[in-house]
Specification:
By secondary structure, this protein is mainly beta. Helix content is 10%, strand content 41%. It is elongated and about 50 Å long.
Length: 156
């Protein structure tokens, strides 16, 4: 009985350590680029309350894309997400009264390795003006993720 339990444990370990599928796993994160397109928004771009942000970025993966997410949030404390070398001129720090927070997910059709993310996001009329972060995240079918953060400003 003791030997059969050990044999079962040993067989289980061998199956768990099987690496025959490791060569086929996607180990590369997707990318977000502006190559070949007019990307928007770009660092330090200014928008007005009530206008739209016309989003446009190319999403690329070596195997298969999954989905993407767009997040916009106020940056009144001037924190960073460190994906750009561009430094924008910021307004003075302030406390949000009606800071805008936007967060939405978007599907990418199955099987695609290249997709142009295009969305039109309405900026509310009643939000606080000032410095904001626009962030786009792409996730591939294997679960790898890439982030691009852009500093923007919203004015009257």
């Amino acid at each position: 009985m003791k030997h059969s339990i050990l044999a079962i444990i040993f067989a289980s370990l061998l199956c768990a350590c099987d690496s025959s599928n490791d060569d086929n796993k996607d180990m590369t994160a997707p990318s977000i680029t502006d190559n070949g397109i007019d990307a928007c928004p770009y660092d330090c771009q200014t928008f007005r309350r009530g206008d739209e942000i016309a989003v446009c970025f190319a999403l690329i993966d070596n195997e298969e894309l999954g989905n993407y997410n767009i997040e916009i949030h106020h940056n009144f404390d001037h924190h960073t997400h460190s994906t750009s070398d561009v430094e924008c001129e910021f307004e003075a720090d302030k406390t949000a009264v009606n800071g805008w927070i936007f967060n939405d997910d978007y599907a990418i059709p199955a099987g695609q390795k290249y997709h142009v993310a295009q969305q039109f996001i309405q900026i509310p009329d009643d939000i606080d003006t000032g410095d904001y972060h626009f962030m786009i995240r792409v996730t591939d079918a294997a679960g790898w993720q890439q982030l691009r953060a852009v500093a923007i400003r919203i004015t009257e």
